[in-house]
């Protein structure tokens, strides 16, 4: 047998082994998703999130009163006419909580998605290229991570304004270095495996290897990060709104409602603060239940 024939045979063996490994990984991912969908925490979280998504999509059909212009007697307690009572402006709290879901679910998931997207790009480059780029980028990422997220958000929004797009951009930018660090670690564990080496030997470009070969195999940590970031984004947006840096008035944003009415607790009018705060908590807990289910399966895969 000639050296050329022998070399071709070895290449075929390597190719078949790599293909078998890729097939096993795909089957493992399918099994992981089946396990996630069966977990009670995932089901409960999805049900709660779905309820709030429906509220965000169809607030006019669900809310019994106009959340902005309707006026009734001030500070009425919860009753058959007003399920969550009325606030200090006479507005129906139930209607405002329903309508407030729209801004939160319009801003938080998009901010989380953009932050994860930016973090994936940066983390892939850091983990695959290594060298000086990785060293410099890692120092910048560590510097960002060490700073308080809410404080940076307040400074940025105070400077740039508090439109929805500014809030989305600020939150996404703050999440990017956190996600990048996680993705970098996942890429470092993959970059020297056989399937990556085989792609290099085939003469594939760095971009092809990163986004066609490595990326599908690090989707587990990325999806875990996305679910976690959505929960953090909901809390961050609500906190910024509470501090006056969220969506501008007359938005019935949950954080703004808590900020407007929390002084009423001293006078015994607890409902106008409790129900929007409970809405924030329920959505954050629901997203975290989904994140826990995803992490418990994909985090160990």
Describe this structure in words.
The protein is mostly helical and 301 residues long. The protein has one domain: MetI-like fold (Orthogonal Bundle). The chain contains twelve helices and no strands. The protein has helices at residues 3-38, 40-57, 59-62, 93-129, 131-145, 149-160, 164-190, 194-201, 206-214, 219-242, 254-261, 271-298. Helix 1 (3-38) packs antiparallel against helix 12, helix 2 (40-57) crosses helix 4 and helix 4 runs parallel beside helix 12. The longest helix is centred in the middle third of the chain and has 37 residues, at 93-129. The radius of gyration is 24 Å and the shape is elongated. The two termini are 42 Å apart. The mean pLDDT is 84.
Count of the separate structural domains: 1
Overall mean pLDDT: 84
Q: Unreliable segments (pLDDT under 50, ≥5 consecutive)?
A: none
Number of contiguous helices: 12
Give the name of the CATH architecture.
Orthogonal Bundle
Superfamily at the CATH H level? Answer: MetI-like
The ordered H/E elements are: HHHHHHHHHHHH
Please give the number of β-strands. Answer: 0
Instruction: Indicate the percent of residues in helices.
Output: over 70%
* Beginning-to-end CA distance, first to last residue: 42 Å
Label the structural class: mainly alpha
Shape: elongated
How big is the Rg? 24 Å
CATH structural fold name: MetI-like fold
Please report which band the strand proportion falls in: under 5%, 5-15%, 15-25%, 25-35%, 35-45% or over 45%: under 5%
CATH class: Mainly Alpha
């Amino acid at each position: 047998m000639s050296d050329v024939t022998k070399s071709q045979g070895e290449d075929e063996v390597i190719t078949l082994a790599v293909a078998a490994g890729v097939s096993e990984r795909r089957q493992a991912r399918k099994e992981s998703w089946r396990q996630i969908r069966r977990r009670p925490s995932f089901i409960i979280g999805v049900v709660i999130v779905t309820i709030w998504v429906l509220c965000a999509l169809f607030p006019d059909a669900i809310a019994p009163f106009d959340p902005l212009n309707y006026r009734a007697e001030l500070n009425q307690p919860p009753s058959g006419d007003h399920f969550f009572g009325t606030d200090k402006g006479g507005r129906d709290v139930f209607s405002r909580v329903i309508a407030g879901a729209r801004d939160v679910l319009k801003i938080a998931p998009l901010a989380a998605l953009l932050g994860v997207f930016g973090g994936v790009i940066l983390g892939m480059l850091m983990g695959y290229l290594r060298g000086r780029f990785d060293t410099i980028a890692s120092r910048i990422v560590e510097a960002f991570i060490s700073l308080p997220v809410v404080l940076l958000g307040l400074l940025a929004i105070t400077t740039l304004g508090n439109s929805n797009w500014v809030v989305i951009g600020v939150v996404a930018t703050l999440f990017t270095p956190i996600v990048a660090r996680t993705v970098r670690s996942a890429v470092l564990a993959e970059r020297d495996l056989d399937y990556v080496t085989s792609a290099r030997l085939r003469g594939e470009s760095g971009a092809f290897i990163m986004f066609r070969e490595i990326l599908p195999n690090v989707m587990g940590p990325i999806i875990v990060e996305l679910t976690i970031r959505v929960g953090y984004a909901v809390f961050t947006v609500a906190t910024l709104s509470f501090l006056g840096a969220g969506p501008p008035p007359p938005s019935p944003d949950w954080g703004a409602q808590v900020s407007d009415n929390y002084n009423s607790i001293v006078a015994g009018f607890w409902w106008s603060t409790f129900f929007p705060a409970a809405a924030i908590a329920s959505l954050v807990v629901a997203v975290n239940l989904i994140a826990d289910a995803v992490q418990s399966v994909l985090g160990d895969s």
